[in-house]
Amino acid sequence: MTERMPALFLSHGAPPLVDDARWVAQLERLAAGLPRPEQILVVSAHWEAAPLTVGATDSRVPLTYDFGGFDEKYYRTRYASPGAPDLADRVAALAPDDQPVHRDETRRLDHGAYVPLTVMYPEADIPTLQVSMPTLEPEALFDLGRRLAELRDEGVLIIGSGFTTHGLPFLTDPRPDAPAPTWSQEFDAWAHERFAAGDLEGLLRFRTEAPGMPYAHPRIEHFAPLFVTLGAATDPEQPPAEPIDGFWIGLAKRSIVAA
Prior knowledge:
Helix content: 25-40%
CATH superfamily: LigB-like
Number of strands: 10
CATH architecture: 3-Layer(aba) Sandwich
Order of helices and strands: EHEEHEHEHEHHHHEEEE
Number of helices: 8
Low-confidence stretches: none
Strand content: 15-25%
């Protein structure tokens, strides 16, 4: 009998995070404590497309290097995990009849997906599929997570990949160990309190209730994947584990594991 997989929200960061020894160690420990997935399904902050779109299932399709201005070595990263055509079919089957799923066989994993996976599963031997965020509305993404939740019983690890704070325009110190701005600290502390309280409704209202807004999220695409994760949780009001916290270049790395 397949063990039910958890659902994760990961603060994935930019490609240089793989050079941050603390983040790598935290993510390796997180992965070591999980049952090994049969397949992986990722919703990343870096792919917004409506309707829900399933990415390439052919591992020969190149990764999506959706960033600019970094060292050339980050554009040479490879992560040729097997495609997951059966999982793509299952995702399509779980969609409502009036919400057909599109397919894009030209778009492979973006850095929101492959950067953390290169640390968690460096052998790249687990079939992995990325799907788009069809909307940024928290309630709709929560509903999407609810539809996908049964995949957890089939050995699928569901990952929402974003960042707990992502106010890049308001950062003034690019050092990895730079002090976190007040808005980032306040939003992160609020998120921790909401997780600990199992306050789903508060999280859904983060745009109007969280301190540090709108600086913490000038756009909300990096917090939005959290709601797919919470929707896929067995009980979204049960406090999740928070195995990763702290800051990188002032941004909150808080990540959760939902049972």
